[in-house]
Specification:
The structure is a single chain. The protein has 670 residues and is of the alpha+beta class. The chain is built from 20 helices and 21 strands. The strands form five sheets. It has a five-stranded antiparallel sheet with strand order 1-2-5-4-13. It has a five-stranded antiparallel sheet with strand order 3-14-15-12-11. It is globular, with a radius of gyration of 24 Å. It starts with 6 loop residues before the first helix and ends with a helix.
Length: 670
């Protein structure tokens, strides 16, 4: 039986919700609640892949108590009181029912793929996500379809899973050709999880698309769905042992957390069908998989390109004498909230402890098992691991982890502040070879009348045949080149007038945007299509203030789900309704942003930001970024690791009170 896709052959050759109390940090691991000493656990009573035995009687309540007095180098002695099962609030969600009835992710996908309809029914749509595709429709066409009585313009987004973003030249060129054949607009899109997305694929092209992906030793399996998503890792191909270890670990974790089902190969690759009633349940995920998606990220303190604390499971490498000897583990990060709902929130991961490097794969499987057993399956808006950690408490989660682990959980190792890096332009790898980073606007690789970017990148790859890395900043790295090959690649790019990105302003280098309209069904406003206009206007304002070369990151999403880590940005625009955005400011790798203003029209965004930008330009310390300046000068006393859906304390009022623009801002208040 196939258990993972063919690609594995290539790898082998604000006062928020109650529950945890105040939690703040100035540097990674510099928490008010001291991290615990180690939990030396007895052999676990059950494996991480099987749910713990549950009593038919009411479960004991979790204890709520103050953290015990302890030194920074010690973990609490736990007494076996771990997580109690969730009390059922209601029946499982419809998505849970679809998974349970899917026959190990088969559902009726095979039949749906050959019927005449351009779309699939809801149960098949839910299961299709596990296979790496979302059903969408062109929202630009909806009104016309409604007025003429026609059907919506349905298509599918196919997500190609690329562990650590690493591709060969041949794989890149295969994806480039596939986009020409099946993608509307012939574009490729790089995501913040280092995937490729193919938008606008017709249902009649789905089988061919996924088959081609697998033929070049990639996969779409678990690119979406309630399982471990793509493993993200620092993209720089540096030759040091720590970076090399993380690159290898991305592949190991991908294999260890891939769903085990023959359905993928039956439906898409023509494998022999097996009787689903005789196929065992997935040894990790069970019959109904996880309550929601699960994201793991790898980082180093000096290379946090993935913004690791935004992950469900954050793994920060511990290095001594050029050797990666272990990992700090933090749990419960994740973006996404609901507008004006204080009990919804984006969240940074909370320190759990540290482990030896040899146990990291098992540790992530244990965390996934805890999420499987204790996540909320009745409400998908309340079903992430962050809700378990926030509302049940990290001490209870830690005790459950120790109960399941057959290895010690050691103290959290205090580290310097995390550093984000872009890796644009030309760099030495440390092994005599060179890599070049090229900035992509919103991750889109496409030809336009003004710029033949897609053609240029394919020509550069064919000229040199470098390896490729997709980055969490939606950019692309060409790697493992001799200096001479790097010169040739740059010559090809220059012939097509392609900038590597090193010459762009910092604002443009760091900007991120999600696709939003017209394909995303959740988008309330534009993102990718308006990003150039927003950047133009903000760049003009920065030039007026003499800050055009100062580092500044802007991120735009069409809805509150924060798919480009909007709440980690110094300036985040979050779609609220057509043409209008909520503005968030002050985010960073270890701080989430705060609400600055609500329901601001696109045309007025810079007007609303002007008082803050002027204060930053005139009052900031040397080399102080906007996010750090905002937190020092205007930040509230709320928790730095939580950003809720509440909007009752917009920061513009604090900023305007100290600026000459107070009357103007008050006139525009809502």
């Amino acid at each position: 039986m196939y258990t993972v896709s063919l690609f594995m052959h290539a790898l082998s050759t604000q006062g928020g919700p109650a529950g945890t109390g105040e939690w703040r940090r100035d540097g990674v691991g510099d928490a008010d609640e001291s991290p615990p000493e180690h939990c030396e656990s007895a052999p676990p009573e059950h494996s991480e892949s099987s749910p713990p035995a549950r009593s038919e009687s009411s479960p004991p309540e979790l204890r709520e108590s103050s953290p015990p007095e302890r030194s920074e180098s010690s973990l609490p002695e736990h007494d076996g009181v771990a997580l109690a099962p969730l009390a059922n609030k209601s029946s499982p969600s419809s998505a849970e029912a679809a998974k349970a009835a899917s026959r190990h992710l088969r559902a009726h996908l095979a039949e749906a793929l050959v019927d005449a309809s351009p779309k699939m029914e809801e149960d098949e749509v839910q299961v299709l996500k596990f296979h790496g595709a979302y059903q969408q429709d062109d929202r630009d066409w909806r009104e016309a379809a409604k007025s003429t009585g026609g059907e919506r313009a349905y298509s599918f987004m196919v997500r190609v899973k690329v562990p650590g973003g690493m591709l060969s030249a041949a794989q890149y060129l295969a994806m480039d050709r596939l986009a020409d054949e099946v993608v509307r607009g012939r574009s490729l899109r790089v995501t913040t999880r280092q995937n490729f997305q193919l938008h606008g694929v017709l249902k009649t092209d789905l089988v061919r698309t996924i088959r081609v992906v697998n033929e070049c030793l990639l996969t779409t399996l678990s690119g979406c769905g309630d399982v471990e998503r793509n493993i993200v890792a620092p993209p720089a191909p540096l030759a040091d042992a720590a970076h090399a270890s993380l690159r290898a670990l991305a592949g190991e974790l991908t294999a260890a957390l891939a769903p085990s089902t023959n359905a993928y190969h039956e439906i898409w690759l023509g494998a022999q069908k097996v009787d689903s009633s005789e196929e065992p349940a997935d040894p990790l995920y069970g019959e109904t998989y996880l309550p929601r998606k699960f994201k793991t990220g790898l980082a180093l303190p000096d290379d946090d390109a993935v913004e690791v604390l935004d992950q469900d499971c954050a793994l920060i490498g511990l290095v001594a004498r050029d050797r990666l000897y272990g990992f700090n583990i933090a749990l419960g990060g994740g973006g996404g909230l609901t507008h004006r709902k204080p009990d919804s929130y984006a969240r940074l991961a909370t320190p759990l402890g540290s482990i030896d490097a040899e146990h990291v794969v098992e540790a992530v499987r244990i965390v996934a098992g805890i999420f499987r057993d204790f996540g909320d399956r009745t409400d998908r808006k309340h079903a992430r691991l962050k809700h378990v950690v926030e509302e049940r408490g990290i001490d209870a989660v830690r005790a459950e982890f120790c109960r399941r682990a057959a290895f010690p959980l050691r103290p959290w190792v205090k580290l310097p502040p995390l550093q984000r890096k872009l890796w644009l332009g030309r760099h030495e790898q440390g092994d005599g070879r060179v890599f070049i980073g090229v900035a992509l606007s919103a991750g889109r690789i496409a030809d336009t009348p003004a710029l033949r970017l897609k053609t240029a990148l394919a020509a550069a790859v064919r000229a040199v045949m470098p390896n490729i890395v997709l980055t969490p900043q939606q950019n692309i790295l060409f790697t493992d080149m001799t200096p001479q090959d790097a010169d040739r690649l740059e010559s090809v790019l220059h012939a097509y007038r392609i900038e590597t990105g090193a010459g762009l302003t910092p604002l443009r280098q760091q900007a991120l945007a999600c696709p939003a309209l017209p394909t995303c069904g959740l988008a309330l406003a534009e993102a990718e299509r308006v990003a150039p206009d927003v950047l133009d206007e903000l760049e003009r304002e920065l030039m007026r203030l003499g800050r055009a070369r100062a580092p500044l990151d802007l991120r735009i999403t069409g809805c509150a789900n924060g798919c480009v880590r909007t709440y980690n940005a110094e300036i985040g625009l979050v779609g609220r309704k057509p043409g209008h955005y909520d503005i968030y400011v002050g985010g960073g790798p270890e701080h989430l942003a705060e609400i600055y203003a609500e329901v601001v029209s696109q045309e007025a965004v810079v007007l609303w930001l002007r008082p803050l930008l002027e204060c930053w330009a005139s009052e900031s310390l040397q080399d102080e970024g906007l996010g750090s300046f905002y937190r020092r000068r205007f930040g509230s006393s709320r928790r730095a690791d939580l950003c809720t859906g509440a909007k009752d304390d917009p920061a513009w009022k604090r900023v305007a009170a100290s600026s000459r623009d107070e009357p103007v801002m008050a006139a525009h208040s809502r």
